[in-house]
Structures are given as C-alpha cells and as structure tokens.
Amino acid sequence: MVEYYNGEEVVEFISKCPVDGCTNLNNINWRHVGCFLKEYINSNGEIICTDCGLKNGFFNWSFNCGAHENFKPPTRDCQRLIAAFAIMGRLNNGGGKVFLEKLMVSLIRQCDT
Question: Which positions ≥6 away from 107 have C-beta within 8 Å?
C-alpha cells in the first residue's frame, strides 16, 4: 500500500537491524524513540517520524534492536544494506519498482559520503 507524508511517497521502515555485527536477524518494524510511532523511509533514503516530523538521512540515524547495547549507527556496507532492503516485501509491495530503485541509488550515494 502506497502511503504519503507531506506529499512524498513513503513506506513503513521494516528491516533487519542495520548495525554491523548485530545477531538479530528478525525484520523489525522500527519505531522512533520517544514517539513510539512507526518510522517510514522515502525514496531519498531519509527516515521519517510522522509524529514529531523528524526526517534525516538513513546514515544519520542510530539503531537499537535490543540485541546490542545502546544506539549504534548503521553499517556503511552498502552491498549488505541494499541486499537486506531489496528482499523486503513491504518495499516491493508498497513503493514499487521505481521507488525501490531510487531508494537503492540514494543509499549508495549516502554510503559513499
């Protein structure tokens, strides 16, 4: 299902923990700490909390799935991240091919900076 936030297409951010070395292999429906509402991702690779309006690039966020201590930044291994995101049915069903393609390019660009 396609969803929109402030006029841009977004999908629920559901993924495995993107922290390097994390042992949690479950897909997580990420929620923003403090707001506890679902996080979304747009095709520009920005994560958005639709409750408080916080929006930032994927690599500017920190993650805590409970399997590791504290909040940690995501791995900069773009190949691993893209493989994990590409198989997410939610992205394929929600955003479609064009959304997914733009997201992958955006994540690669962010990863290289």
Answer: 45, 58, 78, 81, 82, 85
Per-residue pLDDT tens digits for 63-110: 999 998 889 988 888 776 766 665 555 554 566 778 878 888 888 888
Are 90 and 38 in contact, with CB atoms under 8 Å apart? no
Q: CA nearest 85: which of 9, 14, 10?
A: 14
Which DSSP state fits 93?
A: H
Three-class SS string for 10-54?
EEECEECCCCCCCCCCCCEECECCCCCCEEEEECCCEEEECCCCC
